Amino acid sequence: MPELPEVETTVQQLRQVLPGRVIKGLVQVEWPKMFKTHQPQDLNRLIKGEQVLDVSRRAKFIILGLTNNKYVVFHRMMSGNLFFRDLSSPPDKYTRFVITFNDDTCLRFVDLRKFGRVFFFLKESNLATFFSKLGPEPLLSNFTFDSFSQILNTRNGILKSFLLNQQFIVGLGNIYANEVLFKSQLHPNRKVNSLDETERERLYTAIRQILEVAIENKGTTLSSYMDGGGQKGRNTELLNVHLRNNQECKICNSIITKILINQRSTYFCPTCQPMIN
DNA sequence: CCACGATCCTGCTAGC
DNA sequence: TGCTAGCAGGATCGTG
């Protein structure tokens, strides 16, 4: 899926076009399993006539805030995209459902692998409950080094797995976890509780820098990711390790190595990220 | 608490 | 050329 930078990019763009529009209906539902809280026909009835007030993000979820305290939440998982289109624009392949608006525009959920998910909530409190198990947002000011360090204190698993677990910190996926570890000069198989103060600081700083730069570049496009207007991200060429196995490290010319951690491909430089414990 | 595997899907590509 | 195994940006659930 899109990770935090790709979700944030989409949210910023949808925020410019969706607020103020009135929902006409939910149509062209061709994969009902994506709807996790309501049947599509019920959701159609619940959102019809409501106006979009705002578009926001929590972790990798995209939230449409509607009138009457209604919230539609999307998760794009691995291959999902949200495209704002005119009704008359050419069809997007792999469109799984469409939310239409009164002015003949629409929002298309396009998702090759059909892993994407849709949720609906009827009060902000229910939305908060839904998000309650998520860790902190790494780019918010309340994500301080001290708070991060406290989370690290309670863990003793593998570092890469820790970064991918949304209960501890949200927004990182496989690409950016690999890139963050490279920038931090930390081996992905390090134990979380083995990091000293300096290493924790490097990790904390890298998380924020990697994500911020990726957002500035409107995300990373590997194959299917596109932003809300159907544009590719520009961050791809900045990748230092992800998908670069058997290529030279841009810093030290060592050969980038690929290993598996939790069934996920993990790329690192054995020289810049030595295994010490 | 943690690790690991299976699962949900489709398409692309590397290798034979 | 044609087939197939393996892999892909994520998350959840069950088992040990």
In short:
This protein is of the alpha+beta class. The protein contains seven helices and ten strands.
Spatial order of the strands in the main sheet? 1-6-7-5
Portion in beta strands: 15-25%
Main sheet: strands, sense, barrel: 4 strands, antiparallel
Low-confidence stretches: none
- Overall geometry: globular
Number of helices: 7
**Helix-strand pattern, N to C?**
HEHEEEEEEEHHHHHEE
Q: Taking Cα atoms only, what radius of gyration do you get, to the nearest Å?
A: 20 Å
Structural class: alpha+beta
What's the N-to-C terminus distance? 32 Å
Secondary structure topology:
Layout: H1 4-17, E1 23-27, H2 40-47, E2 52-58, E3 61-66, E4 70-75, E5 80-86, E6 95-101, E7 105-111, E8 117-121, H3 124-130, H4 145-153, H5 159-164, H6 174-184, H7 197-216, E9 257-261, E10 264-268
Antiparallel strand pairs: 1-6, 2-3, 3-4, 4-8, 5-7, 6-7, 9-10
The chain binds a DNA duplex (16 and 16 nucleotides) through α6.
Structure description:
The protein starts with a helix and ends in a 9-residue tail after the last strand. It is α+β, with helices and mostly antiparallel strands. It has helices at residues 4-17, 40-47, 124-130, 145-153, 159-164, 174-184, 197-216, and strands spanning 23-27, 52-58, 61-66, 70-75, 80-86, 95-101, 105-111, 117-121, 257-261, 264-268. Helix 1 runs parallel beside helix 7. The protein has a four-stranded antiparallel β-sheet. It contains seven helices and ten strands. Strand 9 (257-261) and strand 10 (264-268) form a beta hairpin. The protein binds a DNA duplex (16 and 16 nucleotides) through helix 6.
